[in-house]
Amino acid sequence: MTLSLGPRRDAVGLKDGALLVDGKWRPASDGATWTHRHPATGEAIGTVPVANESDVDEAVRAARHAFDEGDWPRARAHIRVGVLLRYASLLREHAEELRGLQALDNGVPLMFSTNIYAGSVEIAADVFTHHAGWVDKVGGQTLPPYQGGDHLAMTFRDPIGVVAAILPWNAPFLLFAQKLGPALAAGCTVVLKPSEFASFAVLRMVELLSEAGLPDGVVNVVTGPGSPTGEALITHPLVDKISFTGSRAVGRHIVEASAGTLKRVSLELGGKSPTLVFPDAPDVGMAAMTTVGTVTMGLSGQACVAHTRALVHRDVYDQFLGAAETMAGAVTYGDPFELSTTASPLINTRQLDRVLGLIERGRAAGARLVCGGERAGGDLAEGNFVRPTIFADVDNDMEIAREEVFGPVLAVIPFTDENEAVRIANDTDYGLGAGLYTADAKRAFRLARRLRAGTVGINGFQVEPHLPFGGFKQSGLGREGGQSAFEAYTELKTVLMPLTDEMM
Ligand code: NDP
Protein backbone atom coordinates (compact mmCIF):
# COMPACT_ATOMS: atom_id res chain seq x y z
CA MET A 1 0.00 0.00 0.00
CA THR A 2 1.32 3.44 -0.90
CA LEU A 3 2.35 5.59 2.06
CA SER A 4 -0.04 8.49 2.86
CA LEU A 5 0.38 11.27 5.42
CA GLY A 6 -3.09 12.85 5.15
CA PRO A 7 -4.25 11.54 8.57
CA ARG A 8 -1.00 12.78 10.16
CA ARG A 9 -1.72 16.29 8.91
CA ASP A 10 -5.07 16.33 10.69
CA ALA A 11 -3.59 14.86 13.88
CA VAL A 12 -0.79 17.46 14.04
CA GLY A 13 -3.24 20.29 13.30
CA LEU A 14 -1.17 21.86 10.55
CA LYS A 15 -2.71 25.06 9.20
CA ASP A 16 -1.78 26.94 6.07
CA GLY A 17 0.97 29.53 6.43
CA ALA A 18 0.75 33.34 6.64
CA LEU A 19 3.10 36.34 6.58
CA LEU A 20 3.85 38.22 9.80
CA VAL A 21 4.23 41.97 9.42
CA ASP A 22 4.36 44.21 12.49
CA GLY A 23 2.59 41.65 14.66
CA LYS A 24 -0.22 40.87 12.18
CA TRP A 25 -0.57 37.58 10.33
CA ARG A 26 -1.86 37.98 6.78
CA PRO A 27 -1.79 36.55 3.24
CA ALA A 28 0.37 37.92 0.43
CA SER A 29 -1.00 41.23 -0.90
CA ASP A 30 -1.73 39.64 -4.28
CA GLY A 31 -3.05 36.41 -2.72
CA ALA A 32 -0.27 34.27 -4.26
CA THR A 33 0.42 30.94 -2.55
CA TRP A 34 2.79 28.00 -2.92
CA THR A 35 1.71 24.41 -2.30
CA HIS A 36 4.12 22.25 -0.35
CA ARG A 37 4.26 18.60 -1.45
CA HIS A 38 5.52 16.11 1.09
CA PRO A 39 8.88 14.61 0.07
CA ALA A 40 7.94 11.11 1.29
CA THR A 41 4.66 10.85 -0.59
CA GLY A 42 4.25 13.73 -3.06
CA GLU A 43 0.95 14.68 -1.34
CA ALA A 44 -0.08 18.33 -1.05
CA ILE A 45 0.44 19.13 2.63
CA GLY A 46 -0.37 22.83 2.89
CA THR A 47 0.16 26.24 1.35
CA VAL A 48 2.24 29.26 2.29
CA PRO A 49 1.91 32.79 0.91
CA VAL A 50 4.44 33.91 -1.70
CA ALA A 51 5.55 37.31 -0.41
CA ASN A 52 6.13 39.74 -3.28
CA GLU A 53 8.37 42.81 -3.36
CA SER A 54 5.77 45.01 -1.71
CA ASP A 55 5.11 42.47 1.11
CA VAL A 56 8.85 42.22 1.73
CA ASP A 57 9.12 46.02 1.74
CA GLU A 58 6.40 46.26 4.41
CA ALA A 59 8.09 43.59 6.53
CA VAL A 60 11.47 45.33 6.30
CA ARG A 61 9.92 48.71 7.13
CA ALA A 62 8.22 47.18 10.18
CA ALA A 63 11.57 45.79 11.35
CA ARG A 64 13.25 49.15 10.61
CA HIS A 65 10.62 51.03 12.60
CA ALA A 66 10.94 48.57 15.52
CA PHE A 67 14.70 49.09 15.45
CA ASP A 68 14.75 52.88 15.07
CA GLU A 69 11.75 53.76 17.26
CA GLY A 70 10.91 50.66 19.33
CA ASP A 71 12.07 49.61 22.78
CA TRP A 72 13.78 46.30 21.95
CA PRO A 73 17.24 47.55 20.89
CA ARG A 74 17.42 49.75 23.98
CA ALA A 75 15.57 47.44 26.39
CA ARG A 76 17.16 46.84 29.78
CA ALA A 77 18.98 43.53 30.03
CA HIS A 78 16.41 41.84 32.25
CA ILE A 79 13.67 42.45 29.63
CA ARG A 80 15.60 40.80 26.81
CA VAL A 81 16.91 37.99 29.01
CA GLY A 82 13.38 37.35 30.32
CA VAL A 83 11.88 37.06 26.83
CA LEU A 84 14.64 34.74 25.61
CA LEU A 85 14.46 32.44 28.63
CA ARG A 86 10.64 32.30 28.54
CA TYR A 87 10.92 31.47 24.86
CA ALA A 88 13.37 28.63 25.52
CA SER A 89 10.86 27.15 27.99
CA LEU A 90 8.01 27.49 25.49
CA LEU A 91 10.05 25.65 22.86
CA ARG A 92 10.60 22.78 25.28
CA GLU A 93 6.88 22.68 26.14
CA HIS A 94 5.93 22.57 22.45
CA ALA A 95 8.65 20.14 21.36
CA GLU A 96 6.29 17.35 20.38
CA GLU A 97 4.06 19.61 18.31
CA LEU A 98 7.09 21.16 16.56
CA ARG A 99 8.59 17.77 15.77
CA GLY A 100 5.30 16.74 14.17
CA LEU A 101 5.11 19.91 12.10
CA GLN A 102 8.67 19.41 10.91
CA ALA A 103 7.96 15.79 9.94
CA LEU A 104 5.16 17.14 7.75
CA ASP A 105 7.44 19.83 6.33
CA ASN A 106 10.70 18.20 5.33
CA GLY A 107 10.03 14.56 6.27
CA VAL A 108 12.69 14.40 9.01
CA PRO A 109 11.65 11.37 11.09
CA LEU A 110 10.62 11.70 14.73
CA MET A 111 13.32 9.15 15.60
CA PHE A 112 15.92 11.79 14.64
CA SER A 113 14.23 14.92 16.04
CA THR A 114 13.48 13.10 19.31
CA ASN A 115 16.73 11.23 19.93
CA ILE A 116 19.51 13.17 18.22
CA TYR A 117 20.42 16.39 20.01
CA ALA A 118 21.56 18.29 16.89
CA GLY A 119 18.16 17.68 15.28
CA SER A 120 16.03 18.35 18.32
CA VAL A 121 13.91 21.19 19.63
CA GLU A 122 16.00 20.96 22.81
CA ILE A 123 19.12 22.20 21.04
CA ALA A 124 17.12 25.18 19.74
CA ALA A 125 15.95 25.95 23.29
CA ASP A 126 19.54 25.63 24.53
CA VAL A 127 20.77 28.07 21.88
CA PHE A 128 18.28 30.68 23.14
CA THR A 129 19.29 29.99 26.75
CA HIS A 130 22.93 30.34 25.80
CA HIS A 131 22.45 33.67 24.02
CA ALA A 132 20.28 35.06 26.82
CA GLY A 133 23.48 34.80 28.83
CA TRP A 134 25.38 37.16 26.53
CA VAL A 135 22.89 40.04 26.78
CA ASP A 136 24.66 41.70 29.72
CA LYS A 137 28.11 40.17 29.33
CA VAL A 138 29.56 41.53 26.13
CA GLY A 139 31.04 44.89 26.94
CA GLY A 140 33.69 47.11 25.43
CA GLN A 141 37.07 48.42 26.48
CA THR A 142 38.41 51.59 28.03
CA LEU A 143 41.59 52.53 26.20
CA PRO A 144 44.45 54.78 27.33
CA PRO A 145 45.15 57.82 25.08
CA TYR A 146 47.95 57.13 22.58
CA GLN A 147 48.90 60.80 22.32
CA GLY A 148 48.76 61.62 26.03
CA GLY A 149 46.43 64.24 27.45
CA ASP A 150 43.22 63.82 29.38
CA HIS A 151 40.56 62.08 27.44
CA LEU A 152 38.55 58.93 27.59
CA ALA A 153 38.21 56.46 24.75
CA MET A 154 35.68 53.66 25.11
CA THR A 155 34.26 50.96 22.88
CA PHE A 156 30.72 49.59 22.90
CA ARG A 157 28.88 46.92 20.96
CA ASP A 158 25.71 48.31 19.36
CA PRO A 159 23.07 46.07 17.77
CA ILE A 160 23.75 45.91 14.05
CA GLY A 161 20.21 46.87 12.97
CA VAL A 162 17.71 45.09 10.74
CA VAL A 163 18.73 41.50 10.01
CA ALA A 164 17.46 39.46 7.05
CA ALA A 165 17.65 35.86 8.27
CA ILE A 166 17.35 33.25 5.50
CA LEU A 167 16.99 29.56 6.40
CA PRO A 168 17.39 26.34 4.45
CA TRP A 169 14.94 23.47 4.85
CA ASN A 170 17.04 20.71 6.38
CA ALA A 171 17.44 21.66 10.06
CA PRO A 172 15.01 24.49 10.83
CA PHE A 173 15.03 24.10 14.65
CA LEU A 174 18.76 24.57 15.12
CA LEU A 175 19.24 27.10 12.33
CA PHE A 176 16.30 29.27 13.39
CA ALA A 177 17.79 29.42 16.88
CA GLN A 178 21.35 30.06 15.70
CA LYS A 179 20.16 33.17 13.87
CA LEU A 180 17.39 34.54 16.06
CA GLY A 181 19.07 33.71 19.39
CA PRO A 182 22.07 36.01 18.95
CA ALA A 183 20.20 38.58 16.83
CA LEU A 184 17.51 39.12 19.49
CA ALA A 185 20.00 38.95 22.36
CA ALA A 186 22.04 41.72 20.71
CA GLY A 187 18.92 43.91 20.28
CA CYS A 188 18.44 43.57 16.52
CA THR A 189 15.15 43.33 14.68
CA VAL A 190 14.58 40.65 12.06
CA VAL A 191 12.86 39.75 8.82
CA LEU A 192 12.93 35.97 8.58
CA LYS A 193 12.54 33.94 5.41
CA PRO A 194 12.16 30.20 6.00
CA SER A 195 12.66 27.82 3.11
CA GLU A 196 9.54 27.23 1.06
CA PHE A 197 10.20 23.51 1.75
CA ALA A 198 10.11 23.88 5.55
CA SER A 199 7.92 26.77 6.68
CA PHE A 200 5.29 25.25 8.95
CA ALA A 201 7.37 24.42 12.04
CA VAL A 202 9.19 27.75 11.70
CA LEU A 203 5.91 29.69 11.57
CA ARG A 204 4.80 28.00 14.80
CA MET A 205 8.15 28.85 16.39
CA VAL A 206 7.56 32.49 15.45
CA GLU A 207 4.06 32.44 17.00
CA LEU A 208 5.63 31.33 20.26
CA LEU A 209 7.91 34.39 20.25
CA SER A 210 4.99 36.71 20.90
CA GLU A 211 3.73 34.36 23.64
CA ALA A 212 7.15 34.85 25.25
CA GLY A 213 6.57 38.62 25.21
CA LEU A 214 8.55 39.76 22.17
CA PRO A 215 7.12 43.12 21.01
CA ASP A 216 5.35 43.36 17.63
CA GLY A 217 7.56 44.22 14.69
CA VAL A 218 10.78 42.85 16.20
CA VAL A 219 10.47 39.61 14.20
CA ASN A 220 8.60 39.65 10.88
CA VAL A 221 8.23 36.70 8.52
CA VAL A 222 8.05 36.52 4.74
CA THR A 223 7.40 33.10 3.22
CA GLY A 224 7.99 32.14 -0.40
CA PRO A 225 10.79 31.02 -2.70
CA GLY A 226 14.20 32.49 -3.42
CA SER A 227 12.65 34.54 -6.19
CA PRO A 228 10.74 36.80 -5.73
CA THR A 229 10.74 36.67 -1.89
CA GLY A 230 14.40 36.09 -1.01
CA GLU A 231 15.62 38.33 -3.81
CA ALA A 232 13.52 41.29 -2.57
CA LEU A 233 14.95 40.79 0.91
CA ILE A 234 18.66 40.61 0.06
CA THR A 235 18.50 43.72 -2.10
CA HIS A 236 16.36 45.85 0.23
CA PRO A 237 18.22 49.06 1.11
CA LEU A 238 16.90 49.16 4.71
CA VAL A 239 18.39 45.77 5.63
CA ASP A 240 21.70 46.14 7.51
CA LYS A 241 22.81 42.52 7.68
CA ILE A 242 22.07 39.26 5.90
CA SER A 243 22.48 36.05 7.86
CA PHE A 244 22.20 33.17 5.41
CA THR A 245 22.44 29.41 5.67
CA GLY A 246 22.19 27.49 2.44
CA SER A 247 24.04 26.52 -0.69
CA ARG A 248 27.32 27.94 -1.92
CA ALA A 249 25.69 29.13 -5.15
CA VAL A 250 23.08 31.25 -3.37
CA GLY A 251 25.71 32.42 -0.87
CA ARG A 252 27.85 33.78 -3.71
CA HIS A 253 24.83 35.45 -5.24
CA ILE A 254 23.98 37.13 -1.92
CA VAL A 255 27.46 38.60 -1.65
CA GLU A 256 27.14 40.07 -5.15
CA ALA A 257 23.53 41.23 -4.83
CA SER A 258 24.05 42.94 -1.48
CA ALA A 259 27.25 44.70 -2.48
CA GLY A 260 25.37 47.79 -3.68
CA THR A 261 24.59 48.79 -0.10
CA LEU A 262 27.58 47.02 1.49
CA LYS A 263 25.47 44.97 3.86
CA ARG A 264 27.12 42.90 6.55
CA VAL A 265 26.90 39.25 5.47
CA SER A 266 27.26 36.00 7.44
CA LEU A 267 27.22 32.81 5.39
CA GLU A 268 26.92 29.20 6.56
CA LEU A 269 27.33 27.15 3.40
CA GLY A 270 27.96 23.60 2.35
CA GLY A 271 30.76 21.13 2.83
CA LYS A 272 32.55 18.04 1.57
CA SER A 273 33.90 17.10 4.94
CA PRO A 274 36.56 14.39 5.26
CA THR A 275 36.95 11.83 7.99
CA LEU A 276 40.40 10.21 8.37
CA VAL A 277 40.57 6.67 9.74
CA PHE A 278 43.96 5.36 10.88
CA PRO A 279 44.85 1.74 11.69
CA ASP A 280 45.15 2.66 15.39
CA ALA A 281 41.59 4.04 15.53
CA PRO A 282 40.09 3.01 18.90
CA ASP A 283 37.34 1.15 17.02
CA VAL A 284 37.38 1.03 13.21
CA GLY A 285 33.85 -0.43 13.12
CA MET A 286 32.54 2.45 15.23
CA ALA A 287 34.36 4.97 13.00
CA ALA A 288 32.65 3.43 9.96
CA MET A 289 29.23 3.39 11.61
CA THR A 290 29.51 6.99 12.79
CA THR A 291 30.68 8.19 9.38
CA VAL A 292 27.96 6.32 7.50
CA GLY A 293 25.48 7.52 10.12
CA THR A 294 26.21 11.20 9.35
CA VAL A 295 25.68 10.51 5.64
CA THR A 296 22.59 8.30 5.76
CA MET A 297 20.69 8.31 9.07
CA GLY A 298 18.37 11.15 10.05
CA LEU A 299 18.72 13.71 7.27
CA SER A 300 19.92 11.21 4.63
CA GLY A 301 23.10 13.16 4.04
CA GLN A 302 21.22 16.44 3.64
CA ALA A 303 23.40 17.95 6.34
CA CYS A 304 26.06 20.56 5.69
CA VAL A 305 28.58 18.86 7.97
CA ALA A 306 27.96 15.23 6.93
CA HIS A 307 31.33 13.48 6.63
CA THR A 308 30.88 12.51 3.01
CA ARG A 309 34.51 11.63 2.20
CA ALA A 310 35.95 8.75 4.24
CA LEU A 311 39.74 8.64 3.88
CA VAL A 312 40.73 5.20 5.14
CA HIS A 313 44.20 3.75 5.68
CA ARG A 314 44.81 0.75 3.42
CA ASP A 315 45.50 -1.52 6.44
CA VAL A 316 41.92 -1.15 7.71
CA TYR A 317 40.23 -0.41 4.37
CA ASP A 318 38.32 -3.70 3.99
CA GLN A 319 37.33 -3.75 7.66
CA PHE A 320 35.96 -0.21 7.31
CA LEU A 321 34.02 -1.04 4.14
CA GLY A 322 32.45 -4.14 5.73
CA ALA A 323 31.20 -2.18 8.76
CA ALA A 324 30.06 0.70 6.55
CA GLU A 325 27.97 -1.60 4.38
CA THR A 326 26.35 -3.19 7.46
CA MET A 327 25.45 0.25 8.78
CA ALA A 328 23.99 1.32 5.42
CA GLY A 329 21.85 -1.82 5.45
CA ALA A 330 20.32 -0.80 8.78
CA VAL A 331 18.80 2.43 7.41
CA THR A 332 14.99 2.35 7.18
CA TYR A 333 12.59 4.61 5.29
CA GLY A 334 8.86 5.18 5.53
CA ASP A 335 6.37 7.17 7.59
CA PRO A 336 8.41 9.83 9.44
CA PHE A 337 6.03 9.53 12.41
CA GLU A 338 6.95 5.86 12.98
CA LEU A 339 9.89 5.55 15.37
CA SER A 340 11.18 2.62 13.30
CA THR A 341 11.87 5.05 10.41
CA THR A 342 15.46 6.23 10.70
CA ALA A 343 16.05 8.42 7.64
CA SER A 344 14.44 11.19 5.56
CA PRO A 345 13.46 11.38 1.91
CA LEU A 346 15.33 13.85 -0.29
CA ILE A 347 13.56 17.16 -0.11
CA ASN A 348 12.19 17.42 -3.68
CA THR A 349 12.31 15.81 -7.09
CA ARG A 350 14.94 18.27 -8.32
CA GLN A 351 17.28 17.09 -5.56
CA LEU A 352 16.33 13.45 -6.25
CA ASP A 353 17.31 13.80 -9.92
CA ARG A 354 20.50 15.60 -9.00
CA VAL A 355 21.61 12.89 -6.53
CA LEU A 356 20.78 10.05 -8.95
CA GLY A 357 22.75 11.89 -11.67
CA LEU A 358 25.80 12.26 -9.41
CA ILE A 359 25.61 8.53 -8.55
CA GLU A 360 25.41 7.60 -12.21
CA ARG A 361 28.40 9.77 -13.10
CA GLY A 362 30.34 8.35 -10.12
CA ARG A 363 29.82 4.84 -11.54
CA ALA A 364 30.78 5.96 -15.02
CA ALA A 365 33.97 7.58 -13.67
CA GLY A 366 35.08 4.20 -12.24
CA ALA A 367 34.17 4.42 -8.54
CA ARG A 368 33.20 0.97 -7.17
CA LEU A 369 29.60 0.81 -5.97
CA VAL A 370 29.50 -1.12 -2.69
CA CYS A 371 25.78 -0.72 -2.00
CA GLY A 372 22.74 1.39 -2.88
CA GLY A 373 22.82 3.56 -5.96
CA GLU A 374 19.12 3.48 -6.73
CA ARG A 375 15.75 4.86 -5.79
CA ALA A 376 13.56 2.94 -3.32
CA GLY A 377 10.52 1.26 -4.87
CA GLY A 378 7.43 -0.59 -3.59
CA ASP A 379 5.19 1.43 -1.30
CA LEU A 380 7.88 4.16 -1.21
CA ALA A 381 7.89 4.67 -4.96
CA GLU A 382 6.05 8.01 -4.75
CA GLY A 383 8.65 9.42 -2.34
CA ASN A 384 12.10 10.89 -3.01
CA PHE A 385 14.01 8.01 -1.39
CA VAL A 386 17.51 6.98 -2.51
CA ARG A 387 19.05 3.86 -0.96
CA PRO A 388 22.16 4.52 1.18
CA THR A 389 25.02 4.49 -1.30
CA ILE A 390 28.70 3.76 -0.69
CA PHE A 391 31.37 4.19 -3.34
CA ALA A 392 34.80 2.64 -2.72
CA ASP A 393 38.11 3.26 -4.53
CA VAL A 394 37.14 6.86 -5.19
CA ASP A 395 39.75 9.22 -6.58
CA ASN A 396 39.60 12.65 -4.94
CA ASP A 397 39.46 14.28 -8.39
CA MET A 398 36.18 12.56 -9.23
CA GLU A 399 33.02 14.66 -9.17
CA ILE A 400 31.60 12.37 -6.46
CA ALA A 401 34.50 13.44 -4.20
CA ARG A 402 34.36 17.14 -5.03
CA GLU A 403 30.67 18.11 -5.28
CA GLU A 404 28.44 18.40 -2.24
CA VAL A 405 25.85 15.69 -3.04
CA PHE A 406 23.38 16.50 -0.25
CA GLY A 407 22.10 12.93 -0.29
CA PRO A 408 22.99 9.54 1.24
CA VAL A 409 26.22 9.02 -0.68
CA LEU A 410 29.61 8.26 0.89
CA ALA A 411 32.87 8.34 -1.09
CA VAL A 412 35.59 6.10 0.40
CA ILE A 413 39.16 6.95 -0.56
CA PRO A 414 42.19 4.82 0.43
CA PHE A 415 45.45 6.36 1.72
CA THR A 416 48.87 5.05 2.69
CA ASP A 417 50.38 7.62 5.05
CA GLU A 418 49.48 10.62 7.16
CA ASN A 419 50.78 13.27 4.77
CA GLU A 420 48.84 11.80 1.89
CA ALA A 421 45.69 11.76 4.05
CA VAL A 422 46.06 15.42 4.99
CA ARG A 423 46.76 16.42 1.40
CA ILE A 424 43.59 14.66 0.17
CA ALA A 425 41.52 15.98 3.09
CA ASN A 426 42.50 19.59 2.39
CA ASP A 427 42.17 19.23 -1.40
CA THR A 428 38.63 20.61 -1.54
CA ASP A 429 36.94 23.98 -2.08
CA TYR A 430 35.11 23.49 1.21
CA GLY A 431 36.23 23.54 4.86
CA LEU A 432 33.29 23.07 7.19
CA GLY A 433 34.08 19.95 9.22
CA ALA A 434 36.59 17.13 9.52
CA GLY A 435 36.94 14.04 11.64
CA LEU A 436 39.83 11.81 12.53
CA TYR A 437 40.01 8.47 14.26
CA THR A 438 43.27 7.55 15.99
CA ALA A 439 44.42 6.48 19.44
CA ASP A 440 47.65 8.50 19.05
CA ALA A 441 47.07 11.77 20.94
CA LYS A 442 50.09 13.48 19.36
CA ARG A 443 48.87 12.63 15.87
CA ALA A 444 45.35 13.73 16.80
CA PHE A 445 46.43 17.22 17.83
CA ARG A 446 48.98 17.54 15.01
CA LEU A 447 46.31 16.76 12.43
CA ALA A 448 43.56 18.76 14.11
CA ARG A 449 45.76 21.82 13.50
CA ARG A 450 46.67 20.86 9.93
CA LEU A 451 43.15 20.14 8.70
CA ARG A 452 41.63 23.23 7.07
CA ALA A 453 38.12 23.03 8.52
CA GLY A 454 36.01 25.05 10.96
CA THR A 455 35.36 22.13 13.33
CA VAL A 456 37.52 19.02 13.75
CA GLY A 457 36.20 16.04 15.71
CA ILE A 458 38.69 13.59 17.21
CA ASN A 459 37.16 10.11 17.57
CA GLY A 460 33.65 11.61 17.36
CA PHE A 461 31.72 14.70 16.28
CA GLN A 462 28.85 16.70 17.74
CA VAL A 463 27.16 20.07 17.40
CA GLU A 464 26.86 22.19 20.55
CA PRO A 465 25.01 25.49 21.07
CA HIS A 466 27.94 27.33 22.64
CA LEU A 467 30.72 26.28 20.24
CA PRO A 468 31.65 28.40 17.21
CA PHE A 469 30.48 26.64 14.04
CA GLY A 470 31.28 27.67 10.49
CA GLY A 471 33.53 27.17 7.57
CA PHE A 472 36.99 27.78 6.18
CA LYS A 473 37.26 28.53 2.45
CA GLN A 474 34.00 28.31 0.48
CA SER A 475 32.04 26.84 3.40
CA GLY A 476 31.16 30.30 4.61
CA LEU A 477 31.90 33.62 6.26
CA GLY A 478 31.75 34.03 10.03
CA ARG A 479 30.66 31.68 12.80
CA GLU A 480 27.41 30.71 14.48
CA GLY A 481 27.37 29.59 18.11
CA GLY A 482 29.07 31.17 21.10
CA GLN A 483 30.31 34.70 21.72
CA SER A 484 31.54 35.27 18.18
CA ALA A 485 27.98 34.67 16.91
CA PHE A 486 26.58 37.27 19.32
CA GLU A 487 29.25 39.76 18.26
CA ALA A 488 28.38 39.19 14.60
CA TYR A 489 25.04 40.91 15.29
CA THR A 490 26.76 44.00 16.68
CA GLU A 491 28.80 46.91 15.36
CA LEU A 492 31.82 48.04 17.33
CA LYS A 493 31.49 51.70 18.29
CA THR A 494 34.24 53.95 19.63
CA VAL A 495 33.27 56.89 21.86
CA LEU A 496 35.82 59.63 22.53
CA MET A 497 35.50 62.22 25.25
CA PRO A 498 38.23 64.82 25.90
CA LEU A 499 38.14 65.81 29.58
CA THR A 500 38.05 69.60 29.82
CA ASP A 501 37.80 71.76 32.91
CA GLU A 502 34.37 72.98 31.79
CA MET A 503 33.00 69.46 31.98
CA MET A 504 34.24 68.60 35.44
P1 NDP B 1 19.50 27.02 -0.92
O1 NDP B 1 20.73 27.84 -1.00
O2 NDP B 1 18.86 26.58 -2.16
O3 NDP B 1 18.37 27.82 -0.11
C1 NDP B 1 18.59 28.36 1.17
C2 NDP B 1 17.62 29.48 1.40
O4 NDP B 1 17.91 30.54 0.49
C3 NDP B 1 16.16 29.09 1.14
O5 NDP B 1 15.33 29.80 2.05
C4 NDP B 1 15.97 29.57 -0.28
O6 NDP B 1 14.61 29.79 -0.63
C5 NDP B 1 16.75 30.87 -0.23
N1 NDP B 1 17.11 31.41 -1.53
C6 NDP B 1 17.28 30.75 -2.70
N2 NDP B 1 17.60 31.64 -3.68
C7 NDP B 1 17.63 32.87 -3.11
C8 NDP B 1 17.89 34.18 -3.58
N3 NDP B 1 18.19 34.42 -4.86
N4 NDP B 1 17.85 35.20 -2.72
C9 NDP B 1 17.57 34.99 -1.42
N5 NDP B 1 17.28 33.78 -0.90
C10 NDP B 1 17.33 32.72 -1.73
O7 NDP B 1 19.86 25.82 0.06
P2 NDP B 1 18.95 24.62 0.50
O8 NDP B 1 17.71 25.10 1.18
O9 NDP B 1 18.82 23.69 -0.65
O10 NDP B 1 19.88 23.96 1.64
C11 NDP B 1 20.92 23.15 1.31
C12 NDP B 1 22.25 23.88 1.41
O11 NDP B 1 22.39 24.49 2.68
C13 NDP B 1 23.40 22.91 1.31
O12 NDP B 1 24.40 23.40 0.46
C14 NDP B 1 23.92 22.83 2.75
O13 NDP B 1 25.25 22.44 2.85
C15 NDP B 1 23.64 24.19 3.25
N6 NDP B 1 23.56 24.19 4.71
C16 NDP B 1 24.58 24.71 5.44
C17 NDP B 1 24.58 24.67 6.82
C18 NDP B 1 25.69 25.27 7.62
O14 NDP B 1 25.50 25.56 8.79
N7 NDP B 1 26.87 25.49 7.06
C19 NDP B 1 23.46 24.07 7.55
C20 NDP B 1 22.43 23.55 6.69
C21 NDP B 1 22.48 23.62 5.32
P3 NDP B 1 13.68 28.59 -1.12
O15 NDP B 1 14.31 27.29 -0.78
O16 NDP B 1 12.44 28.83 -0.36
O17 NDP B 1 13.56 28.79 -2.59
Q: List the total number of helices.
A: 17
Helix/sheet category: alpha/beta
- Uncertain spans: none
Number of strands: 20
- In which order are the strands of the major sheet placed? 14-15-16-13-12-17-18
Written description of the protein model:
The protein has 504 residues and is of the alpha/beta class. 38% of the residues lie in helices and 19% in strands. It contains 17 helices and 20 strands. It has a 7-stranded mixed β-sheet with strand order 14-15-16-13-12-17-18, sandwiched between helices. It has a 6-stranded mixed β-sheet with strand order 9-8-7-10-11-19, sandwiched between helices. β7, α7 and β8 form a beta-alpha-beta unit. α3 crosses α8 and α4 runs antiparallel to α8. It is globular and about 80 Å long. The N and C termini lie far apart (84 Å). It binds NADPH dihydro-nicotinamide-adenine-dinucleotide phosphate. The site of NADPH dihydro-nicotinamide-adenine-dinucleotide phosphate has 30 residues, from α9 and α10.
Describe the structure concisely:
This protein is of the alpha/beta class and 504 residues long.
